[in-house]
Amino acid sequence: MFDLLVKGGTLPDGTTADIAITGDRIVATGRVEGAAREVIDATGDLVAPPFVDPHFHMDATLSYGLPRVNASGTLLEGISLWGELRDIATVDEMVARALAYCDWAASMGLLAIRSHVDTTPDHLRTVEAMLEVKRRVAPYIDLQLVAFPQDGLYRAKTGRENVLRALDRGIDVVGGIPHFERTMEDGAESMRDLCRIAAERGLRIDVHCDESDDPMSRHVETLAREVTRHGLGARAAGSHLTSMHSMDNYYVSKLLPLIAESGMTAIPNPLINITIQGRQDTYPKRRGLTRVKEMQAHGITVGWGQDCVMDPWYSLGTADMLDVAFMGLHVAQMTHPEEMARCFRMVTEDNAKIMGLEGYGLKKGDIASLVVLNAGNPTEALRLRAERLAVVSKGKVISRRSRNDARLTLARRPESVRRRHGMP
Ligand code: FE2
């Protein structure tokens, strides 16, 4: 007797399979015979491994309008607003907002999140709050925390000291922000310093790197060099990398092989990059998204991150990684059928690889976490930002939603189109 049987779903690769679960593991897949205590009929629906967000700010989430809205819409005004808020927000307030967000995330099938935690203030209430959230959501969401020196490792008086204090208190990943340091040289030195810290402590590193329209912001070059020097490989990630959008093409032709050689991964955040970058431009206005397809062509793992939901930098957001991938698909012009399918993998498999998640997937023996979507395949899921009909986390059904008929109508391929293209 299985605990749970998800019957007849279509997997992202197009095959149809039952998935049997006992405890927190997948124990059988394919055509499964046998009874189960609970059955989810997923016939005609897409069954995918859960969504993963490798870049978020949970200490700031759901604080939109506090202490006031970002009038200029720029990164720098956002940093300044957050600088005020983080000192007046209590631990309880931050925990409450983050837990509310985690409820949204769980209902959307988003079950693993890497969140940067601002370590700038000496009180480290942000760290205290996020460690508490991590403990409380552990039964259903894997939360990985990054020690993030928002105001600079060296630019803030106790920036470096507080990153180390946060790591000592149990924060998982080393973070940085080289383009915000006082000088290019300080930024480059911060990359050498932080990679050394990650290597010495055996930790992952994920840097807000070159989140700028300045084509001369080339800290990714130093990051890749240090990742290679210390052999950090896929344990290292460069987030944003927006300056690459504006870089000279000849320079990029040298840079991409260096990033590929290092084995590091890349995390563009399309919702935020498209709204925050290019704010000083008139026309033509740069998009600010990094070179996604070009990096993938060099074998670099690239995942879509969400970055923000209703905070000093971004006023919208719903914890829906399909929204994130949908925006990324448009801005990066990933419209070929293979590229659209890739966009779905970027918010599932590729992001799981970036975070180093173990037991992720829908194979026998994997952790029993999955999402049932009201769509026939990954591209349709993106087109519809399909409903999450059921979400299973570590063997437990944590969310169910009834099917929306309007959406179902949209999901059905019109008869005329079907016949014209000889589709099933
Ligand atoms: Fe960020």
Tally of extended strands? 15
Structural class: alpha/beta
Overall radius of gyration: 21 Å
Please tell me the CATH architecture of the largest domain by its name.
Alpha-Beta Barrel
- Overall spatial form: globular
Q: What's the helix count?
A: 16
CATH homologous superfamily identity of the largest domain: Metal-dependent hydrolases
**What is the highest CATH level, the class of the largest domain?**
Alpha Beta
Describe the structure.
This protein has 424 residues and is an alpha/beta fold. It folds into two domains: 2-49 and 361-406, Urease, subunit C, domain 1, CATH 2.30.40.10; 51-355, Metal-dependent hydrolases (TIM Barrel), CATH 3.20.20. The chain is built from 16 helices and 15 strands. Strand 10 (204-209), helix 6 (219-230) and strand 11 (236-240) form a beta-alpha-beta unit. Helix 2 runs parallel beside helix 3 (125-137), helix 5 packs parallel to helix 6 and helix 6 packs parallel to helix 8 (249-262).
Describe this protein with a few key phrases.
424 residues, alpha/beta, TIM Barrel, binds fe (ii) ion
